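Structure in, sequence out. Go:
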């Protein structure tokens, strides 16, 4: 199994860019803010902590997806970008979307919030595996 650690680093950066873009000012961020009640002012005191948590969790996601792409490539002999994206989509559906849907349903969170957050996770997983597939 081959893993390009340069690819992992670039994929991590791509994931951070997705996070910043997804939740920066705009239609998605405004809707998320309205649904959660979390405003920039409310999050300011914990911004540094939240950015550290984001970086650590995105690093874990990137490494996990790199291992999944590497194992799948080794097992199938398929080293294509499409295979990497399929791994990302499958991991998102099986691990992220299903878990978030369960939690948000039991916590009675709005469906729109679930869509925003699972959409972010899908964009994150696909961005990471796209980069991994290119390396």
């Amino acid at each position: 199994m081959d893993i390009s650690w340069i690819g992992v680093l670039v994929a991590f950066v791509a994931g951070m860019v997705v996070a910043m873009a997804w939740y920066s000012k705009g239609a998605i961020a405004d809707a998320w803010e309205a649904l959660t009640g979390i405003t920039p002012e409310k999050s300011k005191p914990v911004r540094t902590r939240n950015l550290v948590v984001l970086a650590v969790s995105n690093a874990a996601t990137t490494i996990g997806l790199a291992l999944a792409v590497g194992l799948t490539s080794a097992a199938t002999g398929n080293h294509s970008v499409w295979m990497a994206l399929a791994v990302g989509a499958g991991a998102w559906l099986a691990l992220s979307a299903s878990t978030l849907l369960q939690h948000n349903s039991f916590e009675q969170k709005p469906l729109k919030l679930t869509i925003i957050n699972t959409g972010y996770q899908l964009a994150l997983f696909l961005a990471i595996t796209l980069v991994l597939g290119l390396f």
